[in-house]
Amino acid sequence: MADTETYTYQSPTYREIHRGRAVDWRDRRGPRYADYRRQWDRTAADRLAPAYPLHVDIETTNACNLQCPMCPRTHLVKAGNKRWSPGGKIGLMDFDLYRSLIDQAAEQGAFSVKLNFLGEPLIHPQVVDQVAYAAGRGLWVMMNTNAVALTQTMSRRLLEAGVSDVFFSFDSPDAEVYERIRVGAKFDRVVRNIQRFMELKYETGRLDVQTRVSMISYWDDKGAGENEREAYLALFDELGVDEIGFAVYTDPNLDYSTLLPEPMADFCCDDLFRRVFVLWDGAVQVCCGEWERQLQVGDARRNSLAEIWRGPVYDILRRAHAEGNYHRIEVCRRCSVPYLIARDRAEAQRGRA
Question: Does the pTM of the predicted model rise above 0.85?
Answer without folding.
Answer: yes
